[in-house]
Amino acid sequence: MSFPIMLFAGLDFPSLPQQLVNGLELGAIYALLALGYTMVYGVLKLINFAHGEVYMLGAYIALFTSWALGFGPGKMAAATNNPFALVVMLIASMVGCAVIGVLIERFAYRPMRNQSRIASLITAIGVSMLLQYGGTIFLPNSPPPNISENVNPYRGSIEIPIVPRNAALKAKELALLKVSDDDEAAFNAYLQRTGEGEFGVSAPGIPLRDAARASDRAYNQAKNAAEATGLVITVETGQAIIFGMAVLLMALLSYIVRFTPAGRAMRAVSLDFDSAALMGIDVNKIVVFTFIIGSSLAGAGAMMTATFLGTPLIPFYGLVPGLKAFVAAVLGGIGNIPGAVLGGILMGVAETLVVWAGYSSYRDAIAFVILIGVLLVRPGGLLGSAKVEKV
Amino acid sequence: MTLTLRQAKGAAIAAFLLGGLMAGCTGGGSTPSAPTTTPAPTTGSTPSPTTTASGGTPIIVGLVASENGDLAPWGKDEINGAQLALDDFNAAGGIPGHTVQMEIQDSGSKPEQGKSAAEKLIADGALALVGEVSSGITAQIVTAAQDKQIPVIAVGATRTDLTQGHSNVFRVCYTDAFQGPVMAVFAYNELGLRKVGIVTDEKQPYSKGLSASFRAAFIKLGGQIVDEQFYESGQTQFGGQVTALKSKAPDGLFMSGYFTEVGQIARQAHDAGLVVPMFGGDGWDSQQILQYGGDAIVGSYFCNHYNNKETRKEVQDFLAKWKAKYPDEPEPGTTMGALGYDAMLLTLDALKKDPTLDSKGLTAAIEDTVNFPGVSGNITLKGMHGNPTKRAIVVKLTKDGQIFAKAYEVADVQKALAAAAKK
Questions:
Q1: Domains detected in chain B
Q2: Residue A76 has what pLDDT?
Q3: In sequence order, what DSSP letters do the residues of B91-147 get, joined into one string?
């Protein structure tokens, strides 16, 4: 009896909805990337290990585009409040990645297509390493550059109130804010008058300083008490955009695959490559089409994470996300498009829940634990068919 | 996590990471090519051969610096600082009858290359080894210098255990065991914080050590640690950690990691509505932190060795000399420049007091240092087992870089902790 109680002791349930939202946001990116793995696998039965590097290059393309738009190092343009730069960067990344994906297919994978499966696989690993280590020579990475936050007009967060806060406590909070501001002003006036620095004030200033700090703490306490009575989900604006765009792109992909002639051809090729060719489908065209779609999704994901999170860019930027997305694709059943989305979301939520439960150091391990668990029960993945594939 | 170069890249001084591991591994024979990695316990019973400079010949002081690799910007500062010190020393008369030279070897930001660089310098007859900016590389220099007991003067290596058990190893910077308490005293007394959350990079021994020393001191002062969240260098999404911290409602955040992740965490915390004072250790010291952290990191505080906006005479003199010699450098007198200058000048100063002109006498002369007026503060090494009694500086990050907030002498921190204990 005591075991489940112990397990749940110390868990912070009020923050659970917030953590689930965090997990969804993270999962959307994994899903976008996982789609690229799963689509290529569906059509070519090839695990495109260079997909993470396409993602990395997409982030760099976004960076260079932002530089070209005047948000470069040195003389940086001021913060903008218009999304023009973001749109240009998104398009540049998607188009750039599509081109890169097609080039990789044309020059690395196509010559190997009639060789054994293992040869293509090794080629994919080779391309991945070529791009990573080539990147260390040709891409700026020391110190790692990042996309300036000035390019992004959507900062801060959106607060969604679920349960309203206690009004009396809220009033108390506001009253204490007033006291805190007054004490702060008194301390600042003292500093102004004496010309002393904020730190290391002389004896007469110390009571003023301590009063200012104490009333600030009292205000914070009241604010937290008021906040604890309500339930508010905070969604970072950037994360909300990432999530929204990811959903939009996935919906678009689903439409293309299900309702367009190219999508139908893609499904046919995925079902049986040789028969599809015999039925008059130009398989090379379809393969190229698949790479275009998969790579541009990666480009969109890379541009959004690099921009909204401001992550420093290095040529190994795609390594870990690529690996996790691959796991997500396998988890959902590789070759299965809804499976990739499901796998990505599951992974994102699982990782965030691990952090929520206080085991943040196991965050990266959880992906692989889930993978092993699922494959033991369902070798084909959650939505995949259990067919033995020799790679 | 997977083995990526990203960590090593990200954290500027993150060769620490490799370095820490390497240093821990040398006993295990992970470097079979180097026969010197299995030193006998230093009981002092074996007469150690010393390198001697005979009359008239040039005296060589070795400098190990990262001319290439991730730490190259710091390596360049270190070299510039050391060169300035040598020029000053020679201009002031040098050592009569000898020419003093500095020989530089590149460590390539890699611990193992640092070791061969040190070995090369020793083979070339260097009397002392100055360097490095990171603890991981310095640990390898110490290994190389072990046999001949050549004095090693580390520039920016703060890992506390580095000097332990070595009578020939010194540094001109404070240790991590000091900067944690400094930030605790600053946060408690000056910022008036009582409930603090800690964010630790679990992959970096530096960060873990710093968090531990901060936690102990802050609790001793009467404060409360409401939460500690962990991440690993290389991660980019910190939403989970930020939400967890926010639910504990801290007054402030102590982030002991390196600037790469700290900047991103600050940004994501601000976006999520966790807007509280943030502060950390010398792993924040880079212009890049403003780029990564954006507006969110502006107004934060961290512990540093040196600040070029301080009005002390030593600092102003140093800056004037630096600007005259390196007019093209974008940032005059950086932290590693100042520490490189101090390390080299302290070594040369000791050399002057040492009539034997051999590495054994030099070690003794360095050990004798009392109140050496360094650019980064007064340095006393006598009886300190290589770890100087020396002040630390708290700086505030502004949009235009770091400004001086407050300096703490060792005694100040001890006094504050003792006063809290009495209460």
A1: 13-24+56-174+315-390 (3.40.50.2300), 177-304+393-422 (3.40.50.2300)
A2: 67
A3: HTT-STT--EEEEEEE-TT-HHHHHHHHHHHHHTT-SEEE--SSHHHHHHHHHHHHT
